[in-house]
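CO-FOLDING WORKSHEET

Operator: S.A.
Ligand of interest: copper (II) ion
Run index: 186
Mode: holo prediction, single chain
Checklist:
[x] sequence pasted
[x] SMILES validated
[ ] output reviewed
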Amino acid sequence: MSSESNVLRPPTSEQPRRLRGLANLVLATIYVAAVVFALAAGVGWIWHRVTGPTSATSAVAPAATAPSTPSAVTVKMSINPPPLGGVKGQGGTVDDAFVPGTLTMKVGTTYDVVLYNYDPHAHTWTLPNFNINADTPAGTASSPSITHFTITPKSKGTFQWFCALPCDKWSMATNGYMRGYLKVTA
Ligand SMILES: [Cu+2]
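OUTPUT RECEIVED:
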């Protein structure tokens, strides 16, 4: 009995070993296949990234042009605009004036101020607190001169602006005409 079992034992113990070897081979094959697949996927992703820019340029283009158009708020002022060619003063006469005479701005916002001068005389929009002295050359009722400058208020407050060129004497001394305020709020 014992000799018989000895004879039978070798094949039974060898079979699982062979099976285990086969299982290892299958696992190794799966492992190798997985590695090859991962590498192929990785190479494919890199290839896509490398060849991608041709299609990505159109998407990048708008972003590149965006900074060139600043997010400034446009503020327009007119000097002696038609049809009156000025603003009616206290005595009912038409006097030299910037319209509007008071500007309101917010701290930290950039404003692109555009001045249209319809008057056949030059004026200035001068604001010492902001180191601004904008010349507004003479224009006409149908073709105003156009002057641009930018302001980015740093602190709140009420600041006096004025026209520094001799013009309508009464207007130069009266807020809302050739002088006025820039009101900056938080
Ligand atoms: Cu003036």
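REVIEW:
Residues 96, 123, 163, 165, 167, 178 surround copper (II) ion (CB under 6 Å).
DSSP finds three helices and eleven strands in the chain.
[x] output reviewed
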